[in-house]
Amino acid sequence: MEAFGGAPAAKGDGMKDPIAKSIGYRLTHTARLQKALSARLLADLGLFPGQEAVLKLLVEQDGRTMGDLAGALRVRPPTASKTIARLTNQGLVERKATDGDGRLVRVYLTDAGRERGGSIDRIWEALEAEMVAGLDNKERKRLRKLLRKVEKNLAQRLGTDGGVDDEGEAGEEDDEG
């Protein structure tokens, strides 16, 4: 058996791969599993990961511009455009030129898109329930707080806000006393 990075893992001596014990490894592995389960649940709605975020943004505010969508999704405009094209082909959104300026295009949900967008919350709630099964409220709150700290550290190192949400942080007490 090989350990992470191709080095042989120690057998029979009780030693564990130190990489697998690292927080970075656990976080990456957990994120991959979460993403895989999310993709499976979204597939039940006929969606691919990333498409649900577009639908949710349009449920919140229909008629967004391509630039607004790209900014909110934190992707480049061509990436947003591809996603919108796929959702258009599925009949979930439609593009409409703005009156007076054919260059400015806004994206609107179709009835089918609005219905599908309404189902996304149930998917996210099911995913959340799976992720935190077995954790009590105190553990959940502590995990959120710790993950926010990790996000801030990484975002600060990258020189960006990283989309870190400070909401609720000041009001949460350190549960470990």
Textual characterization of the structure:
The model is unreliable at 1-10 and 167-177 (pLDDT under 50). The chain has a single domain, classed as Orthogonal Bundle (Arc Repressor Mutant, subunit A). The relative contact order is 0.09. Strand 2 and strand 3 form a beta hairpin. Strands 1-3-2 form a 3-stranded antiparallel β-sheet. Helices cover 54% and strands 10% of the residues. With 177 residues, it is mainly alpha-helical. Helix 2 crosses helix 5 (111-131) and helix 3 crosses helix 4 (77-89). The chain is built from 6 helices and 3 strands.
Shape: globular
Name of the CATH class: Mainly Alpha
Largest sheet: 3 strands, antiparallel
CATH superfamily: Winged helix-like DNA-binding domain superfamily/Winged helix DNA-binding domain
Estimate what percentage of residues fall within beta strands: 5-15%
Number of strands: 3
Helix vs. strand class: mainly alpha
Radius of gyration based on Cα positions: 21 Å
| Low-pLDDT regions | 1-10, 167-177
Q: Which range best describes the helical content: under 10%, 10-25%, 25-40%, 40-55%, 55-70% or over 70%? A: 40-55%
Determine the CATH topology: Arc Repressor Mutant, subunit A
**Structure annotation, total helices:** 6
Distance between the termini: 41 Å
Order of helices and strands: HHEHHEEHH
Name the strands of the widest sheet in spatial order: 1-3-2
Number of domains: 1
CATH architecture name = Orthogonal Bundle
The whole-number mean of residue pLDDT values reads 84
